[in-house]
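All the exercises in this workshop are built on plain-text protein records. Instead of coordinates, the fold is spelled out as a row of discrete tokens. Once this layout is familiar, the rest of the handout is easier to follow. The record below serves as our worked example for the rest of this section.
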Amino acid sequence: IDSVVNSYLITHCGMMPTTSPSIGLMVSSSCTFVSSCAFPAVLELGLRVNKLGTSSVTYEVGIFEEGVEGVKAVGGFTHVFCDSVHRRPMKLLRAYREGLERLLVRTDGEGNGEVEEGEGEGEVVRHRSAKL
């Protein structure tokens, strides 16, 4: 789950892990197991943002087996973005916010908070992993 989030931050938000002025510290995490996968399954991960605050982001990741109906697990975590030197919370960098807003699920009364791949606002980004 951490890898798909960090891959997205690097690819779509301009995060440079060793030189960025902010760092995302994981302050909570969870994972709910639904059903198992076995070698040599290929997994697909769907990423979305459930909450985007001033300095924090809550992600959700669905884990799917390629070609198999239904989710295998749902997990996620919350990052608090902090100054990389002093480790104090700081406002999300503009590039991060812009990239993460693409994945934000709307819960402001418009729609039901559910998204489909490719909708734009609330878009689910799929990441294909290597074989287990």
User: Anything to note?
Assistant: Strands lie at 22-33, 42-52, 56-65, 71-83, 125-131.
